[in-house]
């Protein structure tokens, strides 16, 4: 089953990178267009900032998912760096992953409530009438993705903990 998850992770990683690339281009291109239109050509365009903010929201949330996937999100690793025993390191990693999973589950719940509110009481942007749930969906997708990556980390931490108890290190096998 592990090759399946590895292939799935590679496909999800490719998709996240593609979304981040496209949204980066959109934010940059639309901002450049807005600046040129306003200050070079003297045009007054409405709604471009709404598109920039929408693309920016998806970019930020995709970036959070990419960081979570790569274990590059913010961490406080003072205690982790002090630990020398493999079992304590694995226990610490598992405990941190469980805490992150619980917090991520709360974010999933809150994002679901926010998205449901946005669908039940639809609001739109002032100029282009883009439904607000479109940007709220980015938060929902990111919260679910981060929760899934937190569960992955709990699983890996548990595997390292079992391996440390038996004296076997899965990290050595991957190298």
UniProtKB/TrEMBL annotation:
<feature type="domain" description="Tripartite ATP-independent periplasmic transporters DctQ component">
    <location>
        <begin position="28"/>
        <end position="156"/>
    </location>
</feature>
<dbReference type="Pfam" id="PF04290">
    <property type="entry name" value="DctQ"/>
</dbReference>
<feature type="transmembrane region" description="Helical">
    <location>
        <begin position="41"/>
        <end position="61"/>
    </location>
</feature>
<keyword id="KW-1133">Transmembrane helix</keyword>
<comment type="similarity">
    <text>Belongs to the TRAP transporter small permease family.</text>
</comment>
<keyword id="KW-0472">Membrane</keyword>
<protein>
    <recommendedName>
        <fullName>TRAP transporter small permease protein</fullName>
    </recommendedName>
</protein>
<keyword id="KW-0997">Cell inner membrane</keyword>
<keyword id="KW-1003">Cell membrane</keyword>
<feature type="transmembrane region" description="Helical">
    <location>
        <begin position="132"/>
        <end position="151"/>
    </location>
</feature>
<dbReference type="InterPro" id="IPR055348">
    <property type="entry name" value="DctQ"/>
</dbReference>
<feature type="transmembrane region" description="Helical">
    <location>
        <begin position="12"/>
        <end position="35"/>
    </location>
</feature>
<feature type="transmembrane region" description="Helical">
    <location>
        <begin position="94"/>
        <end position="112"/>
    </location>
</feature>
<keyword id="KW-0812">Transmembrane</keyword>
<keyword id="KW-0813">Transport</keyword>
<comment type="subunit">
    <text>The complex comprises the extracytoplasmic solute receptor protein and the two transmembrane proteins.</text>
</comment>
<comment type="function">
    <text>Part of the tripartite ATP-independent periplasmic (TRAP) transport system.</text>
</comment>
